[in-house]
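Operator note (shift B, R.M.): manual run for Chaperone protein HtpG requested after the automated queue skipped it. Running by hand, logging everything below so the morning shift can see what happened. Input copied straight from the record, untouched. If output looks odd, do not overwrite the archive copy; leave it for review.
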Amino acid sequence: MQEKGTISIHTENIFPIIKKFLYSDTEIFLRELVSNAIDATQKIKRLSSLGQYNGELGDLRVEVSFDEKAKTITISDNGLGMTAEEIKKYINQIAFSGATEFVEKFKEAKDANEIIGRFGLGFYSAFMVADRVEIETLSYQEGAEPAHWTCDGSTEFEISEGSLAERGTEITLHINKDSEEFLSQQRLQEILDKYCKFLPVPIKFGTKTETEDDGEDEEGKPKYKTIEVDNIINDTNPIWTKAPADLKDEDYLNFYKQLYPFSEDPLFWIHLNVDYPFNLTGVLYFPKLKNDFEIQRNKIKLFSRQVFITDEVKDIVPEFLMLLHGVIDSPDIPLNVSRSFLQADSSVKKINSYITKKVADKLAELFKADRKAYEEKWTDIGLFVKYGMVSEEKFYDKAKDFVLLSNTKNENFTLSEYKDKVTPEQTDKDGQLVYIYTNDPAKQDAFIQSANKKGYDILLMNSPIDNHFIGQLEQKLEKTSFKRVDADVADKLIKKEDALEHVLTEEQATKVKGIFDKAINKPAYKVELESLNPDELPVTVTMDEFMRRMKEMAAMGGGMGFYGSMPDNYKVIVNGNHKLISRILNEENEEVQSALSKQAFDLALLSQGLLTGAELTEFVNRSVNLI
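Run finished. Output pasted below as returned.
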């Protein structure tokens, strides 16, 4: 049997196009060919179970090998095999219409992935790395004859009598000069570990040495011997394919260490398992996030029938869930580009909603089952929950019942609990509830102490997402606003009816303002006189809450660039009721007046960490001279 022909693609030559546009992702050739071999192996197993194949299955496996000297890579299986006619049907005829339009469309393409996945060209990815490809195959069908197919990367092929004596397929790639990097044990192992580590059929790649017991020596001590065994690179039954009832915590933790060998143990996990209205399995882990979530992304691995596809799952998993680790596996996620890129359709949206619900349900369950344990984990999961509430409306609706607000006394409250706690003391004269918070307790300690003296509770809001979270709560919570504890003096944070009277006359107030303006002499600092409690500091420096918040969002890249470019402006609040102000007014020496005013101002800056460098040195020297 010998036959020559032309591959039916109705165009002169598709292979240069494949090579050109898939060059940047050449390693996927091995994934595609191994996946095809797995499919063929599983199909023969299925036919056997249905009674449509009565022969011996044998040891079903896929084998990958290479010959550096001959410059070949071979992928073999003992699956279905093919007849010569099936080769013509499945290999020689690329199954899509309008091939001429295809070539025209993609000859200027920049995205290699547009080609292979959309048009089912997985086998042809071999030509990205090979000058010539050979197929040896023998079909499972009774009386089938072995067939041999070869193609040199043109549209010309040749089919002849094959040499296989047993059922299956063997594909040999004659590697081109530009792809000789793949003729390496380490490089091939790396690709197999990346894409094929959890495929459902054993994959052999060479051999490895193991040590086993070899009885005892003459003195009765144990002996060991080294043996050569098959190097099976994959776990054919990973935990996400098993029922949760059959797994222990140890199994989940061991799998996590297998995926992320250098990570701390996760806090907890969710086992996904649904078969209607879509198929989805997987395990999602909650890592210890602390306050840094940028480095956590792209840690969820997407599989399709246990074949690794990508770790870029933003189209399937909601943005905030990108902070999780783990795996998801679904044959229902539509893929293109050699199974690498996702199409956002109804199935993806349903999966997205399902995962969001499962995560919210798990957190609600943990909160209700053991609140103390939940609070102990809050430092790690708080950022995640807040990020989810800010970015996903449906998640907010569920999370509002288990999100916690923490104060500077290390107490935790739900939203409703905290409202009940602070309503009596922190409602202003207009009925507005004011939540006071700090993002740096050490730096803002003086402000915190002043607020505490008035009976105010201070929330700790120091995660990267808290600026956005605060903004969201102000929109969601009725008649509620947030103020940072250093946004104003304690007497002015919450406007009450019982404002203190000014002890200074209008003339005295004008004089004091002039003294401080002259002593400070900085346009960015605007002096204002207030009638405050005499026990408060003589001078306090604050920044407007709105302006400061906008500038912080701009610094985080929150789309507030206009505010980020604006200069810092501060308010210098002089406490007209403080005894130091009376002393300054009564001081006849203008130099002493100026020195005292400047000293009070610098003390205010120092208490907030705003006095640095040469100004700090000058302050210290001046303080020594005043002693």
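Quick read of the result: DSSP finds 20 helices and 24 strands in the chain. The longest strand covers residues 203-216.
Leaving this for review. - R.M.
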